[in-house]
Design brief:
Layout (H helix, E strand, L loop, with lengths): L1 E4 L3 H22 L5 H24 L6 H4 L3 H9 L14 H21 L18 H34 L6 H6 L1 E4 L9 H21 L12
Antiparallel strand pairs: 1-2
Helix pairs in contact: 1-2, 2-5, 2-8, 5-6
Bound molecules: protoporphyrin IX containing FE (2 copies).
Amino acid sequence: MQKTLVWDLPTRLFHWLIVASLLAQYATVEWLDNKVQWHFYIGYFTLFLVTFRVLWGFVGTQHARFSNFVTGPRKVFSYMKTLFNRRSEPAIGHNPLGGWFVIVMLVLLAIQAISGLFMTDDIFLDGPYRQLASEEILRLMNTLHHLAFDVLLYVIALHVGAIVFYSVYKKQKLVPAMVHGNKEIKTAGISNSRLLRALIVALITAVVVYVAIEVYPPAPQVDEYYY
Ligand code: HEM
Ligand code: HEM
């Protein structure tokens, strides 16, 4: 057994920033008054994080890549058979079942952030894509924005429940590895976090999100009622 790097810094940063962003997103609509503008800004940041993670899933380090943890049903089922075996070999990166869970979370986060672009607070603030869609689409996005969050809450509860299960039942401490990146494993981990590559991917992501939010949407129509 040796202590070796498994989760690169960008993946770990993505994870804890997503946790902080979701908390802030909830707070800015449910606990704090008149903070919907902040809800928008943090929503754009969430969109940035999710887009970054999707790209990093293709060009990131070994265990961050989708090809490393998105597996076929056979592997998932054979993993499930070992789920309640206390002494089953710990996965190096995401296990086959957890890998699909990651995909579900990323899809839900993407639906949440994209549907937000079509939302309105019914008073002052319109999401940047509001002008682009028909009434029907706007209604659908509104439903999705509410529904995706409710589903996310259940999925997050399951996610945290699974982490506790691994810690208590299987004695596999996954959280410290998501913090410092290292695991005690038999094989070699990754050599480094590929920070220069991550920076380039982050810059590309920032440009894509900026164009999508600031450049692409038409300027909002000013309601003549206010003049
Ligand atoms: C807002 C709530 C949360 C969301 C949306 C979330 C989402 C995610 C996602 C997307 C991943 C995959 C990471 C990647 O490969 O990029 C992940 C992994 C992980 N999360 Fe969370 N997470 C949340 C809260 C938490 C909390 C509170 C904990 C700690 C108790 C936690 C612990 C972990 C761990 C340990 C992993 C790695 C699992 C493994 O070893 O396969 N997460 N989470
Ligand atoms: C992943 C990111 C996001 C999360 C987690 C999130 C979460 C939420 C939640 C929990 C609500 C309250 C829903 C309810 O009352 O049932 C809400 C409402 C809302 N969201 Fe988001 N949202 C996100 C992104 C966005 C974005 C990007 C925008 C706009 C650009 C946006 C605009 C709105 C608006 C306008 C409301 C209604 C606020 C009101 O009723 O005054 N959201 N969001």
